[in-house]
Design a protein that fits this description.
Blueprint: H1 29-48, H2 51-70, H3 72-95, H4 97-113, H5 116-131, H6 135-157
Helix pairs in contact: 2-3
Bound molecules: zinc ion.
Length: about 160
């Protein structure tokens, strides 16, 4: 009989102590879930590159666009959903200091390299975004900026005596 090869987890590299079966390739439930997630993501990324997917995607986008043009209630709901998605993703990013710093760095780089047309497009989008905020959201935005300036002034003044 052949001795069993010591097997290692394909996710984390730790050895698999008690393989549930001969096909077990991960060491634990979290690694099993992580592996499935990784494989699923890779498969989706591959599928995204196929011509069939691109055609289906373009058709879907066109159908949404035409429905938005014909149905004002649907258009408003889509715009609202989009605003919520953007807001959530910005909040998630800003909650992570590392991701926030990376984003600010990217923005600085973009500003340095942008053409006047790109700047104008960005400004137009920013104005539209601001116009879409509720009074409450605007008040919160301004309060955040005031607080940030206060902190910057306090930091510039040095430690209090
Ligand atoms: Zn593992």
């Amino acid at each position: 009989m052949k001795p069993r090869q010591p097997r290692v987890c394909v996710e984390c590299g730790k050895s698999i102590l008690s393989p549930g079966g001969t096909r077990t390739v991960t060491c634990s439930e979290p690694c099993r879930v992580a592996r499935l997630k990784r494989l699923k993501h890779a498969s989706y990324e591959r599928r995204k590159q196929t011509p069939e997917f691109k055609v289906a995607q373009a058709e879907y986008v066109a159908s949404i666009k035409s429905r938005r043009a014909q149905d004002p209630a649907f258009d408003a709901a889509q715009a609202e959903q989009h605003r919520r998605n953007v807001k959530n993703s910005v909040e998630r990013r800003n909650a992570d200091p590392e991701r926030r710093a990376m984003h600010l760095q990217k923005m600085r780089e973009w500003r340095r390299l942008a053409t006047p047309e790109q700047r104008e497009k960005f400004l137009t989008a920013s104005r539209e975004w601001y116009a879409g905020l509720s009074a409450e959201e605007r008040a919160r935005l301004i309060a955040g900026k005031v607080e940030k300036r206060r902190q910057q002034r306090a930091a510039a003044a040095g430690p209090a005596q």
